[in-house]
Amino acid sequence: MRATKYATWMINRALIFLTIIGLISGAVHANPGNRLGLNVSPLHKLTSSVPFIDIFKVSRGWITSCEFNWQKNRPIDPGCTKRTAFNTNESHLVTLDRNGWVKRLPTRGESPIFTTVNSIWDMPSHFPLGDYFVTYKGEGKITVHGSLNVTQQRPGRIDFKLTASKGLRIHLASVNPRNYIRDIKVIPKKYERIYKSQTFNPEYLKTIRPFNSLRFMPWQNTKDTLIANWNERTTPAHAHYYNNAGVPVETMIDLVNTINAAPWFSMPHLATDGFINNFARTVKQRLKPGQKVYVEHSNEVWNMMYPATHHAAREGLRLWPQAYPKLNANSRKMKLALNYLGKRTKDICRIWKGVFGGRRNDVVCVISSYAGGPTLGEEVLSCPLVGGKPCSQFVDAYAVGPYFGDYIARIENRNLLRNWSRQGARGMNNLFTEILRGGLVKDQYPGGAMERLTALRIKPNVKLARKHGLKLLAYEGGQHLLRVDRPHVIHDEKIFEFFSKANQNPRMAQAYSRYLNTWRNQGGGLLMHFNGIATINNHSYFGMLDNVEQHSSPKYNALISFLRGR
Q1: Is the C-alpha dihedral spanning 123, 126, 129, 134 positive or negative?
Q2: Cβ neighbours of 71 (radius 10 Å)
Q3: C-alpha distances out from residue 516 to 34, 38, 289, 372, 534, Å
Q4: Does residue 531 have a cis peptide bond before it, meaning omega lies within 30 degrees of 0?
Q5: Torsion from C-alpha of 536, 538, 542, 546, nearest 10 degrees
Q6: pTM of the predicted structure, to 2 decimals
Q7: Is 67 helix (H, G, I), strand (E, B) or coil?
Q8: Cα–Cα distances in angstroms (integers) from residue 495 to residues 141, 221, 424, 501, 503, in the given order
Q9: How far is it, in rounded angstroms, from Cα 431 to Cα 408?
Q10: Percent helix, strand and coil across the chain, each rounded to 5?
Q11: 245 phi and psi angles, rounded to 5 deg
Q12: Tens digits of residue pLDDT in 172-213
């Protein structure tokens, strides 16, 4: 009897111990039941997120420049003017090696106007200041300019103290063509011991580590890229990642491996089958075994703002020239684009699954459409023009962008919103009252932003996904107070400022908590917040954090609480 009681006591103690361990673990790691990821910030916001230890990777280059005598008001280089002295707009004429390093510079007797080049940074006010150093290989004249003090300079290295986030640039006045300047790195002095072995900024890793997945569409420059062939891609050895082809796939995989997250890739709309095959092979070889990878074709192919949609419509017309003859031009273009999206997604999925072979279940093929238009979703999932089985049978998930709050800025509400923007705390209270409870904006969904979201963008898409036997995901999501459709363009700076402040208001955490739980409770799966670390100002307020050294905000706190199951 004593032995039985002792055994029972030991089992209970063990269960209590395991429960405590589970609670501690849950306080640190993401709750797998609350799947949440984020879209990384766009290329032009990389100086807000500063994801790499080597900040030269996020600089812009090369900007061509020429010499002008400002005192005598005449050119030193033939053809140079005051207007073109800093930028002659001849970057396409710079002689580069395959990794983007300047092999030679023109002399004053040659036809290009420029004789020197600069690499510059788009620097927000909160860019990390302090001690930095530059390292490089090769010979030539290289200098560092901006609000800084050079503390030491010798061949191969320049030390400087950055005192203000203004005008930082690397200037190449000459290079030795036989041993040109290359492998330039700009490193914060505090990371001198680790920069050779670590790629990513520890502050950046600390911020994004809790998230389950990263969508790399912005880093891939998916909206604007013209990349088609594998040999056109950016590699880790490239001078700059701020270019049309975006960040190297190897670097993106290394990042998700570092934080143990699932990558979400958007295949370029012009990409050949060969490009997609090589991309998939690189991911398979480099990604941690057992980790999921989400794959989709381009981005928002239903959205006429983007070149991919027009490309899809042209391809659709080429494939099905007689389709939908009775529709008006715009409706026909959309239907053709959606059917091509279905076909191309099916092709991409076949390639990826084939490459992964026995690991094919690690590949999650995603097809996306407009959250507010289930009929568009039905078109792409059924893809009637493609023939054979519906395209939904060749993918694993259906995704939409369930943003909340955009209706508040409709043109019919503009005067009310304008008044709120000028009422200080009272106006801000009205905005969040409408978001959370409704009743202040005339609308057929009087319960506010979450009731409207549920009725129009979640329930219909949950139903559609289930009809086709798919999971419902969110490729993007979060607040979207600004309407961007053309008839509703806003020019009032006070409204922009009002929305910017709202995104930093403590009540945004409450709105986000309601939003995330509404999505989950209605049947939504993995949600990819748009976006990560990006300067919040009057014209850009999608970021969860303003800069890499900020570790708390209403949005971020709500996202982390949701991840931890709170």
Answers
A1: negative
A2: 5
A3: 9, 13, 30, 18, 21
A4: yes
A5: 0
A6: 0.92
A7: coil
A8: 48, 29, 12, 10, 12
A9: 9
A10: 40, 20, 40
A11: -85, -10
A12: 999 999 999 999 999 999 999 999 999 999 999 999 999 999
